[in-house]
Structures are given as C-alpha cells and as structure tokens.
Amino acid sequence: MLRLIKNAEWKPFLDLLSPRFFDVVPLSTVLSQARTLGGNYFDTAAFDAARAARAQTLMGAHVPVELASTLPGPASLVPGAQVLELYFHQVLLGGTVLLDLRAECFASRGERLVWAPRPAFVTLAPDFHRGLRDLYFGFYEDDAARFSTATRTLGLEAAEGALRDQFGVGDQSQVRFSLPDFQQRFQAVFDACVASGAQLHPGFIGLGVGLATLYAHLEQSGGTHDVRAAFFRAAKALES
Predict the structure, then answer these.
(1) What residues does each domain of the chain span?
(2) CA neighbours within 13 Å on the CB side: how many for 210?
(3) Which of 132, 183, 199, 208 has its CA 20 to 30 A from that of 22?
C-alpha cells in the first residue's frame, strides 16, 4: 500500500512534506491514510462527486473560484489572498476537502479563479474537523482557552508550543510563506507528539498534504500575504 502512494502520481505531493515525516508518524496511521488517499486518487466517480459538492459550497459562500476538470489555458499566478480564502473555506466548512492547491492547478478568469486540482482529496472526520475549527478560531480570535481545548481534541496537547510556532507570530497580516519553514515547523509538532507518546489523529496526513501544497503555491507567488484577513473573509462568507 505504501508503494501506491509513493508512485509517480503521488510523488509531487509527498515531496512537499518534511523528509522525516514518515519517520515519526505511526505506521498504522500511515497505512490507514495510504488506503484512503490512494483509493480516493483512483476513484474517478468519488472525485467527480467531491469536486461538484465543493463547487456548490463555494458558490453558496460567494467565493470566486470555479472548479474545472482542466484549465482553460496555461496556469498562471493568482492572488494569494484568494488561495488562502479557498483553503480556509474548506477546513472551516469541513466535509470532503480537495488537497491540491499547487500553483499549476490555477488560472485567472477576470476576477474569478479557475481551479483544476488533481484527485487528491479526503473527508474530514467530525472530531478532527471540530478540532481544526477550534484551533483556527482560537488562534485568530486570540482565544487561548479555545486553542488549548482544540489541541486536546486533536491529540496535540504536548505540542501546543510548537503548534503556536507553526501558526507564526504577530498579527499575521504580512506573512511570507516558505515551504522549508513549513516542513521544519510541521515536523517539530510531530516530534513533540512522538516524544510525549501522544497518539496523532490520522487526519493530519491529509491536512499536511493540503498545507504543503498551499505553502508551495504562496512561496512561488512571492511577497507577503494577509492571512488573518483571508481567514475572517472565509469565516464571514460561511455565515451568510
């Protein structure tokens, strides 16, 4: 099964994770998610349904992203603010999350983005989704208690300090993205969990893939990005 997710189709995704990622994640967790992610990748009907469902939620939230099976032309650099809002829309709403946020999957069409991701997707388990929402709201709303509760829900209590480092410092209005920094910080979270004997939620493998593609995209686009504003735009859109 590990050979399945390490084949040529998955290599561009896995190369974005820390080189030591699979050294610290329990083998049972890796195998569980390998079966899920590998099976999803080759399930055309399931991906078509996941893409259609996400397109509907994006339309309902008035997020200007159009999902497509192929791009209408060459890929192009798109505004990082919109890619961030797309990421937050998915993790805050939950359900089935499309993980491929690489730059080569996007093109601009006027004020809208066209997004043609590869079939890398995962459905967030309810407890994992609840923990993620609390983690993000706890951080961006400066609610330390909610953030700490989320770390317990996600099995990350021993890594709370490393997790805060992963989120970054300051008001997050001018963030410069670096894939190597992401790899190191994400690895530090897992190392802290392993050192304490904490049991990680399997959902972190899929989330790690999605975050890695996001960081790679925003590093490629360059400049700084207002992550806090993107988060609150996504949160507000889901309230409407």
Answers:
(1) 2-233
(2) 24
(3) 132
